[in-house]
Design a protein that fits this description.
Helix content: 25-40%
CATH superfamily of the largest domain: Type I PLP-dependent aspartate aminotransferase-like (Major domain)
Order of helices and strands: HEEEEEHHEHEHHEHEHEEEHHEEHEEEH
Strand content: 5-15%
CATH topology of the largest domain: Aspartate Aminotransferase, domain 2
CATH class of the largest domain: Alpha Beta
Number of helices: 12
CATH architecture of the largest domain: 3-Layer(aba) Sandwich
Length: 430
């Protein structure tokens, strides 16, 4: 006998897919499980491979094979021009001007480089305000960067913690902390979206409060770029950095990127680490002494970038040209809302809370990621999902993270995920 309720529910999911024109699923390669497409909800960890990535990378390999080093200068797409082309395409994704974007290195390397320029302690004004339990790389970056400068992290770093029993940090708490330390804060450094809870922070208000307190502000956008609407230039952000392998689908270990507001491009007072690739372009090949930076964010560049990594990023950004971040973010929030509503249905059917959603319920405070805390221990549930071909993420203690990426995930996939979740809960938790 057909379960008419389930038939109606899956029809609703398919209707949501049919009326939503943002999907570019056909542009991606979907992993398989037992000969069928798997349910992949790990865009917050590694985005899927664009179908055109191989062609873009092969083109660079072919140019290398046939022209060698002349590939930097010759052909229809000289490698020396890659950066300008990619920066122009990446800038709208983060709400920047092309000259404010530099594509280079890895995320944490870029953060260290930017800290050299934008952490400027002066006497008692030396504090750094950040979120408690930020992604470990950010914690380690701050700790070791301060020690390298001869400073004690325990005396410098001020962490803003969630309220007791909560995984999220209220905006009021953040702004109160900035105000409280207004005479001693040098830098507010924050994650745009918290990797653990999926909380989206109001970066505009944080930036404004930091500047009003006389501090600079920077953001780690690893979980925000390609996920939520960003307006870095408009929000007057001083600097930011992000990886391109999550929602931006540029491949494992992809080249990262950074933002430096245009007001700093000609500021000769800023300290920075320098390299040949950041030297002004028109005289770079004269090999002269004395560093003269490019008058843009590229002036923070160091080493020759890899055309192979640029090619993989180009493949993804080609897809982003056909959809705006406003459309993508709206669909991502709609997908997470749909997922949260179905999760609440599991709790209602059970008569108690089995799955606590850690991610804020308000759409203005989240992107597409949803983090679920299992009250009785969720590891068997996670292992069950893996066995049936569902890609999710396990975080201690007892948290499963999923991210329906609007470029390639579907509402029907979300419905199927929740069916599997319910079956696993009945099997292991009820």
């Amino acid at each position: 006998m057909v379960d008419m309720e389930l038939k109606t529910e899956v029809a609703d999911a398919r209707n949501l897919d049919a009326r939503n024109g943002v999907s570019r699923r056909d542009r991606f390669l979907i992993p398989e499980h037992n000969g069928e497409q798997a349910l992949y909800f790990l865009g917050n960890s590694l985005g899927l491979q664009p179908r055109n990535a191989r062609a873009h990378v092969d083109k660079v390999l072919q140019t290398w094979a046939t022209t060698g080093v002349e590939g930097f200068f010759r052909g229809a797409e000289p490698w020396l021009q890659f950066h300008d082309t990619l920066a122009a395409k990446l800038a709208p994704v983060v709400g920047a001007q092309p000259a404010e974007v530099v594509i280079m290195n890895g995320l944490t390397v870029n953060l260290h480089l930017l800290m050299v320029s934008f952490y400027q302690p002066r006497g008692a004004r030396n504090k750094i305000i950040c979120e408690a339990k930020a992604f470990p790389s950010d914690q380690y970056m701050l700790e070791t960067h301060l020690r390298q400068r001869g400073l004690d992290p325990s005396e410098i770093i001020v962490e803003v913690t969630p309220a007791e029993g909560s995984a999220t940090i209220t905006e009021a708490h953040i702004l109160d902390c900035i105000h409280q330390h207004r005479d001693s804060v040098a830098l507010v450094f924050w994650g745009g979206v918290n990797y653990y809870s999926g909380q989206l922070f109001d970066m505009e208000n944080i930036a404004r409060a930091a500047h009003e307190a006389g501090a600079l502000v920077g953001f780690d956008l690893a979980h925000a770029a390609g996920n939520v609407v960003l307006r870095l230039h408009q929000w007057d952000v001083d600097f930011a950095a992000w990886c391109n392998y999550k929602y931006l689908n540029a491949g494992p270990g992809a080249v990262a990127a950074a933002f430096v507001h245009e007001r700093y491009h000609q500021d000769a007072t800023l300290q920075r680490m320098a390299g040949w690739w950041g030297y002004q372009k028109d005289t770079r090949f004269k090999m002269q002494k004395g560093f003269v930076p490019v008058q843009s964010a590229e002036g923070w560049g160091l080493s020759t970038p890899s055309p192979l990594l640029f090619a993989a990023l180009a493949a993804s950004l080609e897809i982003f040209e056909y959809v705006s971040m406003e459309e993508l973010a709206a669909k991502g929030q709609e997908m997470s809302s749909y997922l949260i509503s179905l999760i609440e249905g599991i709790n209602t059917s059970a008569g108690r809370t089995i799955i606590q959603v850690l991610t804020p319920l308000g759409v203005e405070s989240r992107g597409c990621q949803v983090s679920m805390l299992f009250q009785q221990g969720g590891l068997p549930v996670f292992e069950y999902l893996s066995q049936v071909g569902i890609y999710a993420d396990w975080r201690e203690p007892d948290v499963i993270r999923v991210a329906p990426a609007p470029l390639y995930n579907t509402f029907e996939e979300i419905w199927l995920l929740v069916q599997a979740l319910e079956q696993a809960c009945k099997k292991f938790l009820l």
